[in-house]
């Protein structure tokens, strides 16, 4: 494991969330001095379980608090900006999304313009592509903003680019694609489909598929996502760049349901229920050539392996080896 973060002061906004807590674990393992800023909208203290409390500082607060953000950014060499309202919360309340996802990002960038950390990494989403014209989707393909969440995540990207070009703020943008894995909370009503399927499978209940199940996604294991995020933050080659982070493998929700059912030995067939208002993307799989070429990052974990490792983690939680 590289130790480029040893002794570095790192701010992780949204560090008590799903991806954030996995990233914090990794940074702490690399002996970084980690500060987490989280308002616990979807974040949980439990996500940080097992990390020695003295290994990080936890600040309860919001990225919408510009003074607090300025203070924390001024103390950091690296800023990982993950705090965000997710797609479901955002669709229900676009104004809250606007305040956190756009306003919060602007606060981070304004602070970075003044305080000059070595790098600001902004986590965007493949949602910005909407329904793509071509597959797999390249970073410079058409942007199509079909949800308020896509608008806010892309606005954050726009500000990153503008602050890079106008003020020389050293930013990098990563677009995540359907992340899954340990510490994704199935109790969280906003969590992704893998955690929801696993929760029902574990209870022996039929999996619920919204629509016909032929919608496809590029499911990415969180450990791979964390590795790509770290590399993007460290590499001099990534400054000012935008990278897709995915696997390049397209999987239908129906296929995912079968994989999860097989893993749990579930004998009941999935139920097809109504589409939701956020289910307006038919097919999605990203091209990861750019990050592969630039940073030499490739995903290591296949979907079957990632599901297996997530199931094992769920079982350890249930058995009390890890308390969720
Ligand atoms: N999980 C995915 O599949 C996925 C896909 C694309 C992009 N992303 C992006 O990755 C990032 C992390 O996502 P996640 O899946 O870990 O979601 P998450 O909801 O688990 O984490 C987000 C964290 O941000 C915190 N937060 C929300 N509003 C805040 C505010 N105003 N101030 C401070 N903290 C706040 C939440 O409490 C939570 O801990 C987000 O920016 C998200 O948009 C995730």
Task: Write the topology of this structure.
Layout: E1 9-13, H1 18-29, E2 33-38, E3 56-60, H2 66-74, E4 78-81, H3 87-92, H4 94-115, E5 119-125, H5 148-167, E6 171-176, E7 179-180, H6 193-202, E8 208-210, E9 216-217, E10 220-221, H7 222-234, E11 242-245, E12 251-252, H8 253-264, E13 271-273, H9 289-295, H10 303-319
Helix pairs in contact: 1-7, 2-4, 4-5, 6-8, 8-10
SS-derived structural category = alpha/beta
Strand elements, count: 13
Determine the mean pLDDT: 95
Give the helix proportion (percent range): 25-40%
Shape: globular
Task: Give the CATH class of the domain at 9-177 and 221-246 and 284-300.
Answer: Alpha Beta
Considering the protein shown, what is the CATH homologous superfamily of the domain at 9-177 and 221-246 and 284-300? Answer: NAD(P)-binding Rossmann-like Domain
Distance between the termini: 27 Å
Summarize the structure.
This protein has helices at residues 18-29, 66-74, 87-92, 94-115, 148-167, 193-202, 222-234, 253-264, 289-295, 303-319; strands spanning 9-13, 33-38, 56-60, 78-81, 119-125, 171-176, 179-180, 208-210, 216-217, 220-221, 242-245, 251-252, 271-273. It is of the alpha/beta class and 324 residues long.
